[in-house]
Input
Amino acid sequence: MSRIYVVSFRLGGTDGVSIEAAKWIDALSSLGHSITTVAGEGTCDITLPGLAINADAPPAHDELREVLSDADLVIVENLCSLPLNIAARDALYEVLKDKKALFHHHDLPWQRSHLAHLSGPLDATNWHHVTINDLSRRELQNRGITATTIMNSFDCNPPLGDRSKTRSAINIANETLVLLPTRAIPRKNIDGALQLCASLDAVLWILGPAEDGYDEELAALLDKSTVEIRRGVPSGVTIHDAYAACDVVVMPSTWEGFGNPVLESVTHRRPLSVYPYPVLNEIESYGFEFFDLDEVNELKEFLSNPNENFYERNLNVTGQYFNLNDLPKRLAKLLTGIGIS
Output
């Protein structure tokens, strides 16, 4: 089997890239490959601070070259997709120019308004590309880069969370609780979540922190709203507890590379209220049923008269097309196609 190195800005966290990278690592390990993780921060085998998003300087070429010297394949998780550390990206390009590499693209610069003026991924003879949606694959193709789409995968039988304990931990009794299981940044459209909660007379639980300098704007937005708010994750509460505690999951984002809470709502058997961001259309095309953000009356009716068949249909679609148990064979096929055994 092969020696595979996984490289990213950060690993082992709760962000989408870290979560999906961990799934790939587990799947590749189950195939018998030797995995070494390298990142600027987080939980990894080798920490190179110069790879972090906010690093003062990139890792030295010689240092990076030495770390990756015995790799049969280097998988790059988003570090060369989004130009958040251009110097580290360019150092990695230089070191990988004569090595076999697979770039796992979760996001691309032109998909973010504040990064659209910056250059996108490069390509080389020994390099291969995977996107998490077909929109990104087509956009790369239009720029001369051939990619394969492997959408994110999900555990169809996740651990059962503790609803009672968690609602008590965030001081919720019988109120309707709407969960926003993401960070708070501008494209997450927090205002859309607040409007939904106002219409449902519900409490909004924002699970993640404010990032990208959004603290003051978010504080002003929440201050002028009449919606009751909960923020953050109490000690001892897991993501499974959060899904168990809520009555509705909301995803009001205007853009997501995939949007993991969409299918996490399915596997945790919770109704989803969602804004039609571009990639959602790809996900829904498999046969899912969700509530649009403005379908408030329909959602109220569902909450009054839940339909178990609704949950089962969505869960069956997830199991057929997005099943985490199928990821090893998908990656085995991918690696065989690029000459890795």
